[in-house]
Fold each of these.
Amino acid sequence: MKNKFLPLLVIACLCLTSYGQSTSYKQQSDVNGAIVASSSDAVVQTEAGKVAGYLEDGIYRYKGIPYAKAERFMPPVAADRWESVRSCRQYGPTCPQEKRTGWANDEIAFAFNWNDGYTGEDCLRVNIWTPGIADGKNRPVMVWLHGGGYSTGSGQELPSYDGTNLAKKGDVVVVTLNHRLNVLGFLDLSAYGDKYAKSGNAGLLDLVAALQWVNKNIKAFGGDPSNVTIFGQSGGGGKVSTLLATPAAKGLFHKAIVQSGSMLRTMESTYSRRIGKATVEALGLNAATIDELQKIPYEQILAAGNKAVAKVRAEAEKEDALSSFIFGWAPVVDGDVLPAQPFDPQAPEMSKDIPVMMGTTLHEFTSSTYMPGLRNISKEDAIKMVRQRYGDRADDFLAAFAKAYPDYQPKDLLDTDFIFRPSTLEQGRLKAVQQGAPVYMYMFAWESPVMDGMLRSTHCMEIPFVFNNVVRHASMTGGGAEACALGEKMSSAWLNFARTGNPNAEGLPQWDTFTKENGALMYFDNQCEMKYNHDKELIDIIRTFPTRGF
């Protein structure tokens, strides 16, 4: 059965060793919000040269530090060295991408409050927040991978991504980053010779290069290169899932958190090569002229690439192979950079000993958020829509839903997460049966009061709580007392997991590890609780109606 709710998903997706010490370090503290930024303070030596940041509110901040460089469609290489002190106090360029369509919706634009910055192909940059430099401490490091699938986004796009509060609260080093996206990161040109053999995974190799940079340089920023946690949401969660199966990333991180982005499969080379060839042909090029791609304006390549994706996606649908098109543009199983599918049919052996935490929001791609007419839908009309999707299994679905969520509202039936919750459970099961490192599962169910509650616990809603940025991102959370209390609990759990591999924290019930049998998950709401297989029957029914492309 075709998924009648998939267009809503599309809409929602668019709304997402030490190298020296610092020089002339002084112990200073800012007063009343003062910023310390000078030629002698907050200066750190990296492999490529010295960088100058600034001190504000007790946290040192460094933005836009180059971690690598790359020619179009080529693997990244070490960044150029510089001689003088490089000012790194403002975010660097983000990867070129399409204009964010979310700006067309005033309510959504208000809630998300994006900072899209400026674009440029020299976008391989990291941003760092740290409580101390050259102070002899080895702090846990938390590396955030942004969402937006593999097409859009940046390490600065949401107020939630600011690492100040997390770094201060947990005495950790927080890192965000930019990498190549869409055609620049994932256009597979491997059919045109060895030169382009890794082009389909250029963006994935950027992530590896960033982690390598962290490994070599983060000690100078007060971080411990032997205690690195990668975490990400949506497409960022997909990146975490993929890095767990990427041999070049082995040893560069030690814990992983997948937020609303459990990715079992990614692009197959059969289809990525088709996309590459279709793109090249649309641009009027061939094998003899392929290098002309270096000169063609980005916008032309992107337009040709998007048309190629649509063409090959339609072909894949006829061949019943849409599972390769999770995000359209995506890393490719090439037998080298990515030897096999990340979690299909099994969890990768290389990351067996990596503790993983994973979860979703209750509503994820909320139909009622993006379609106002559904916000006050009657139970009768909601059931009609359920019957359109589930046919003769509709009654089973309704019974299972009532069992899982006995106090549901009619719109809840339409706001059901049929995308990430099933794949997260499967990813957790595959990881747990390895009997290696522990797996922890969660569900974020708190509903935002902003704009009369239209956002619910939508996709991205947990991010301000994870970063302890509930007030900083009040346009999404409301910034009230209940939200702040939950933010304290959740950020503590993420910090504890980054520090020890165990998320148990004060104010939460005992958080049991997830197994195939117990289905244990932490249910985050005003009253947090542990649930065990609470929605098993519901998910079993949803799985019989697979969502094409996921």
Note: Residues 267-325 form one domain.
Amino acid sequence: MVASTRIYEGEYAFRHCVVASTWAFEAQGPGSIPGGGAISIARRSRWRSNIYCPPIKMAEPDPPVRLTYMSANLETVVVLAAGEGTRMKSATPKVLHEVAGRSLVGHVLNAVESLKPKQVRVVVGAGREAVESHLSQISPKVTTVFQERRGGTGHATQLALADTNISGTILILAGDTPMLTGESLQQLLDLHHAGGFTATVLTAEHPDPTGYGRIVRGDDGSLLRIVEERDADDFEKAIYEVNSGVYAFDAQKLTKAIGKLSNNNSQGELYLTDVLEILRNEGGAIAAALIEDFVEILGVNDRVQLAEAAALLRDRINEGFMRAGVTIVDPTTTWIDATTKIDSDVTIFPGSSILGGTTIASGAIIGPRTVLQSCTVLTGAKIIESNCIEATIGKSANVGPYSYLRKDTVLGADSKAGAFVEMKNAKVGDGSKVPHLSYVGDATIGEGTNIGAATVFVNYDGVEKHHTTIGDHVRVGSDSMLVAPISIGDGAYTAAGSVITEDVPAGAMGVARAKQRNVIGWVMRKRSGTQSAKSAEAAESAARHSDEKKG
């Protein structure tokens, strides 16, 4: 390794050196990059630079010259997603399992999207129809390639390259690495282009390298080969630097070399890793980019690793939101999908899950123990211990505790869905309140209306759903049954305990309850010997005794 380290602004060159970062190069002196490109040293990255060969000595510019390197356009991305995932023990193809609101392959494609490749080819195999259907929904422009027989990563790449005329740079990566970021992939590509390399592989030092291909370097630190664990000897298994499964290639040189692969290994498969040695033997310049955070390369092969990936993504997502001004009281119990949008000055209390494409505006308070799925929460809304699905919660609205807002529920500004309230396909106007213990289904409620406790919107006749329309400033009495389809006009009232089956005009009082009739002595006759009867008899005896004393 280079003995002395300096960070320069300017041009650098390395003779087939092993470099990790295009942003913060470590070197003994400046030089010129093969191919004539230049690198902008704009900031230090978290990537570690590893240069194991001396750079070309040149006079240091005074003052340093800042140049900008613009990476060549990425022509092709190949995502390997044909694995059966037998260790998942699931009927669902491995790459379709979800973490943080996206499928595994969805996370990979999201990272790739920021690179703006001209084409993306996904190699599919197990569960072909399901995977292709999913891809058509999340990334309809991708091209799928079917690998009927599992012949290894090299074979999958051969299929992806077949019958195509791919040029420029090709990026190859696995479909089960949800932690990869577009930023890291871009840095890999920038390094690849800046150094004029034939191939560049992304590597990391893993504290437990079991299961990963090992990076074998020469005495000068250069990349010699990648050895799969099942083919590694004891010395190679002791290496902590591992292959990420992410590669940047010169597409034309890869196309020529891929046909030279051999399946002379323990698995009888074609390994893409063997291409690196072929290219090296043909005089190609091979680089290994070592990233500092090994978490990015973690793959998912079973349910344990799926849970680990979910927790890691949770931490990454939560940290990002907290640094952007969101208060998350307990990040370890707060789960936020990667697809959510949360403004600053939102407070999220413990035990909450923000899922799907939920958006939350500034000043909102969420939780504790609240689930929001595909919801829109406007400024200053407060949602406590509730479950909301595809609902819109208006400005300064209050929800909960223990409310359930279902699809197509819309709460207006300053409205309320209080304790133990369920709503479905309901529009609640500004300032209206459903304070507690009510069901509101298929309804439109105007502004400033109050729905009394234990009110039920009876929307289902056993065959069809029917709508209830309630006007502005209406007062619905407690324990009312509103049997749809009906309309209650502006300013109207309903009496407590009413079963409303007909429209109530504006300003009217709707009363629909039978006259009370008391059947004297019924309990003593029909329930003789019960505790109720004994209590009633005692009360009757006490009343007689009181009357006798008065008389």
Note: Residues 303-323 form the longest helix (21 residues).
Amino acid sequence: MTSKKSFKSKINLRARGRKVNFETLENLKDLLKIDVFRRDHLIEYLHVIQDNLGYINEEYMTALAELLQISQTEVYEVATFYHHFDVIKGDENKPPSLTIRVCESVSCAMNGADSLIENLDSYYKGTVRIQRVPCVGRCDSAPIAVVRFNPVDNADLTSVKKIVDSKAYDAEIPNYVDFKNYIKEGGYKLLDKIRDGELDKERVLSELEKSDLRGLGGAGFPAGRKWRILQEQESPKLLAVNIDEGEPGTFKDRFYLETDPHRFLEGMLIASEVVGIDKIYIYLRDEYAASRKILTDELVKVSKHFSHSIPEIELRRGAGAYICGEESAMIESIEGKRGMPRLRPPFVAQVGLFGRPTLEHNMETLHWVRDIVEKGSDWFTTQGRNGRKGLRSFSVSGRVNKPGVHLAPAGITVKELIDEYAGGMIEGHEFYGYFPGGASGGILPASLNDIPLDFGTLEKYDCFIGSAAIIILSHHDRAVDAAKNTMHFFEHESCGKCTPCRVGTSKAVELMQAEKWDIPLLADLSQVMTDASICGLGQAASNPIKSVIKYFPEEIKNGSKS
């Protein structure tokens, strides 16, 4: 064990920017409880500071820079990039000891988020910080308030106050299929067969290709083709699992993590075995505290069961940045940097995480691997409807009786989805319009209720299915208001790297507040954002604007101001 004195003699205490406070340095070491410091764990270390202090001040950032032997500027840039870090500059006041985050994205806004925020502000009068935040991935239970880490579904002042008064700040862990019960139900037998050579890897890959399983995070790239590409790359090869579902309207990944996490984990290990993966990184959005506890506990059990016969697995914690759902931005974040998209080529499959070939997958894609291989590709492909193939996990929220994750045939129409799965419209609400693919997927009117919901079916309507997040609007809602809400979200979440997105989202928010929209200017701005933005955030951010202009002209004619 290195003594404080000897440690002090080894570190560089030269004046580079702010001087290092040795006491703070030692306190930080005690907090982190490690002896070897890794640059790529910068965000993990910032989380430790934030969780323990409730904020991150300049002294701790300076100390962290010293431990990692990087510039103070680099630590500051990363800490201030992510929304969940409270960076205190100079003599700024510390935030209140308790923060209540209230979601203000589309589904929550429709269900009274503004009134909830006003009631909380009025009651707590500054003793508790009430913070407006973007989607927290619980749109089916809107409005949502998160008391530190504990989400309050269908929140009102009474239910939030109950949590605060009882100091129940940790997320409740739902009932789920744990390792013991998953094994009991035949779990990991398929993986064992592949590892033992009983089931040929080529056959596994062939079944995956024939199933036409697509990337279910939104991009829709064929999973089998990804595996083929990665098989051909030189080792070491890495796997990055994307569970940073920050798209307003989507919550399917959280649903599966909190019900049957090992089905995804087995799919992940099967992919690793077939492709030849050397190390796995799971990137989980920070808002999913219950999912994080589940994965932390269950990964320990998996590692003990398989000992050293599976790749090392690291669980990484996001820090509140929607942009990190984009694969290259996620990779930057795993490396401990600001989550900014990379220019391509080179593509992630060739030059990805830490410069190595990387297989990147959404969690739900891996969730289906076991079922497809065990039951055969035909089982999966025959599940579709209206000429489409497969199953889709639809995150349904808004004005329906049964919001939630509904497993339904690919190609189902929104009318069929509402009537057969979502329990119909809420009494007193008539179907008016819908988001077919989350905040960025555009908005369609009720008259277009017979379009098959799947990849490639919505593009001619200037929309797309994305992660299959369906938000249902009624005649009590307005598409203009929904579009304003989503554009505010995209302005907030833009990483700022490219001008079309950074300036375009901000300018669009401004223009959309006008009593009468300047349609030619908004249309031109939308096209520039689509054509010139580096990544999908800026390219798709204007879709709701285009939809309102095209499908809801009456709302603009009558004045767009709320």
Note: Confidence is low (pLDDT under 50) at residues 1-15.
Amino acid sequence: MFRVKCPSCKGVKRPVYGSFIYHPLSSVCKAAVHAGNLKKEEGGYVLVELVSGKKIFNGSQGADKSISSTFSSSKISFRTKKAKAPTKITCDDTPANAPFSTATTGSKFVVICPKKCSEFKSKVFGSDIYTDKTSICLAGIHNGVMNDRGGELEFMIEAGQSYYKGTRSFGIISKSRDAYVRSFKFIGPKSAIFYKFKDDYEGSIEKKYDIKQFNPVTDAKDNLWEYVDFTYTDKNLNENKKTKTIHHKGNMKGLSKNDLGTFLILKDVEWNNGIVKSNFFFKDSKLFAFLFRFSDQNNFYSIEFEPSEIRDNVRLVSKVNGSSKTVNQTTMVLSLATWYRTTIIMTNDDIKVFIQSDHIRENKPIFEAKMEDISRGTIGYASNGNYETYINGVVVDDYIPHESNKNNEKNKRSWVNYLKHVEPKVVKKFCKNLFKGDELENQRCRMPSNFCKMKCDDYIPAIENILNFHCFKDCEGKILKKDNDVNIKKDSWKPKIGDRVDFLPIGLKKYSAATIISAQTKKTDKKIEIYTITYITPEGEQKTTTAEFPNPQIKKCGKELPKRKDC
């Protein structure tokens, strides 16, 4: 079963075969009108269900007084059902809001999100399955089923989960959290998600790429993009080699200086982060561009090569809402009949560009910039009068820093400023603002391990596990050193097994009388003890739990409960 949106069928002459069960050659929307699921002049949404075929499809008078035709057998058929129009929601709406708040597990909803939800600061908790206090639209972007242009989403209410893992995806950061009573997930394919691509240069190029010209152009008649076998001379070995390539041929130019003439755009994919590589071989010296995060003809980034220019012949360009801007530029010796390899590393807003040629063995960094306007898109190529260019080595892959970075001080310094003001009072303020009115989550957030995980996942994607781990350890160590909430200094008070303490259980607002019954040193940090604690609930019940120390939950006996007589 699937949903379709029908236009007005008024005045449309298309056949309908059958009654309530329709032949597959029937107009879907007119069949829905015939069945009474739509009014022909209004259009709307219907559900289309594929069912088993029939030996004969008898015509009849429909709900709209139209007469359907009789038709012979078919192995499949369909019927329609009336569907509710999608609910328009805001970027801040969650499944915990009406009309979704009372829905039971398994309930499905279709909603319409507005544009530019990524600009909102709404919360997202989880990955693939989200808590029902998560922004629906932001989760849709994070999940890859929608981009920042908005549109329809279909989701289903799920049972609560014991844990929700936070990740960074498509420019949206989701948070981790523990058990929650209700969840939701998206239904349908993740059409916006694409991780890897490697061109094999086989078949028709039009199956993988769109060939476009978005502007008025000159010399369009001889424009050609195709897959070819290309023979060239390896200058280092002084011998001929053969390779499969994308080939562009033609003098097509845009009428304006800033307009590119012809475009080759990779179809039906888009992504946020990754590493993109392409090899280029120029036989002509006019402008050629490598496009990335291509959204449409008015929104994309590009690396422009112009061998004919003596200065500033390699440029990093941003085109946003139709306006082009040179972000950075440099001068290189761009020789014709030479292979150049371009590598672009995209990590959210950070863009790094490297170039390597067959006579320059190092992968030379040429640009590093922060570009915040376009969060994701596809790749492509464009020419402005460059008559002949060959492209191969087209690869898109995940970007995972090499393990050798773990001891690289340059990388380690990258989060020094980010953690500069991390201390207990800052943690307290951050958590209070993040979890307003939710004391349980506030307390969990203030634990150094939880706070630092959120902050470092926010700054460095968890997939970069080595850098992420070092950020976490630096953050945790800094908080514990400055923990003014419990006034713990080096060699100061530390509870022992059997000691009575004041303990604040997670979820409660008041401290309880408690006793330390066992202790063990944390394997990953010898300065941290993990205590097993028994405590008395406000109802007088005795319960057992574990907690790390140092921790503002554990204080000297009588400090928070001065009337205790058993200290």
Note: Confidence is low (pLDDT under 50) at residues 402-413, 484-491.
